[in-house]
Specification:
This protein is α/β, with parallel strands linked by helices and 293 residues long. It contains twelve helices and 14 strands. It has a domain of 174 residues: Rossmann fold, CATH 3.40.50. It is 34% helix and 24% strand. The strands form four sheets. It has a five-stranded parallel β-sheet. It has a four-stranded antiparallel β-sheet with strand order 7-6-5-8, covered by helices on one side. The longest helix is centred in the N-terminal third of the chain and has 17 residues. The radius of gyration is 20 Å and the shape is globular.
Length: 293
């Protein structure tokens, strides 16, 4: 999965084809309307106030086309005391996407390879549809937990091997018990990611917007075949071994895992909600009315 998505020059996110929007493979909320970025900006503004109106850093992981960043900054420009103290840092793994972002983002924005380059952060670490792009381990419960590996002869073939201790420990820590024959995905990269954020964040917030569920919903019987899927030309499929590098591969994330490992490294959960209620609470209706005026 990692090779399919990030192989230099040949991976889905590292190749030059359009990914997001009408001519791409999927939409994100940020590319549909600037209102989304405006409301995220409102939330960031509130965080700045709570933190004492001190110098504020926004760290955005995987900024895509840069549309969300542009809309957030457009809103925050109206708050001069905040904007004067603001720095906006983008961590972008894809050279292709970084080039798109650099073509239209200038004021306040800088790019980094890793959060480790930023020093202690006071502000907000933001991601929108990022964690579901991390490569995952596919597992199935047999007599014991087995991991799905990929072999190749004349074609791609799946083969099962006993899962590593790291994978079994993941489920044990979350108190997840899979029934026989149950397929699931384990996102160890998300565990490492949230740990790195907790280490870097001196004071502030982590705001993660993504597709996912808590463990009790993610591993219920109706999802016994897992949630791995592909996106191509605004359609979904489960043909993982076709159009390699030419389609997105993604899976639902385990929100309970982010909460659990975040807490183990010093983060406290402020809230967990769906995007609709989150945006309505920030004034979605009024923002749309203003945008139409």
């Amino acid at each position: 999965m990692d090779l399919c998505l990030y192989h230099p020059g040949l991976g889905y996110y590292t190749s030059p084809s359009t990914k997001i929007g009408a001519t791409g493979d999927f939409y994100t909320s940020a590319c549909l309307t600037p209102v989304f970025g405006t409301l995220i900006g409102k939330q960031l503004e509130e965080m700045w106030v709570i933190l004492g109106k001190e110098p504020f850093t926004i760290v955005e992981y995987g900024a895509g086309t840069g549309a969300l960043c542009a809309d957030i900054l457009s809103y925050l420009k109206n708050n001069v005391p905040l904007y004067d103290q603001l720095r906006y840092c983008i961590i972008e793994k894809s050279p292709v996407m970084q080039a798109i972002e650099r073509s239209h983002l200038f004021d306040k924005v800088s790019w980094y390879e890793s959060i480790d380059e930023l020093g202690e952060i006071r502000g907000c670490i933001l991601s929108n549809e990022l964690v579901d792009t991390f490569a995952v381990h596919s597992v199935v419960m047999d007599q014991q937990l087995m991991e799905v590996f990929v072999d190749y002869g004349t074609s791609f073939q799946e083969t099962l091997r006993p899962a590593s201790k790291e994978l079994t420990n993941y489920l044990n820590e979350l108190d997840v018990h899979l029934s026989p024959g149950y397929h699931a995905e384990i996102n160890l990269q998300a565990v490492g990611w949230i740990q790195s954020l907790a280490t870097a964040l001196k004071r502030g917030y982590v705001m993660t917007i993504d597709y996912g569920f808590e463990s009790t919903d993610l591993y219920k019987p109706g999802r016994s075949q897992g949630t791995l899927r592909c996106y191509r030309s605004h359609t979904t499929n489960t043909s993982l071994y076709e159009q390699i590098g030419g389609q997105d591969i993604t899976t639902y994330i385990n929100l309970s895992a982010l909460v659990h490992w975040g807490a183990k490294h010093g983060l406290t959960t402020c809230g967990l909600t769906d995007q609709g209620h989150f945006l309505l609470a920030l004034g979605l209706t009024e923002a749309i009315e203003q945008a139409l005026c």
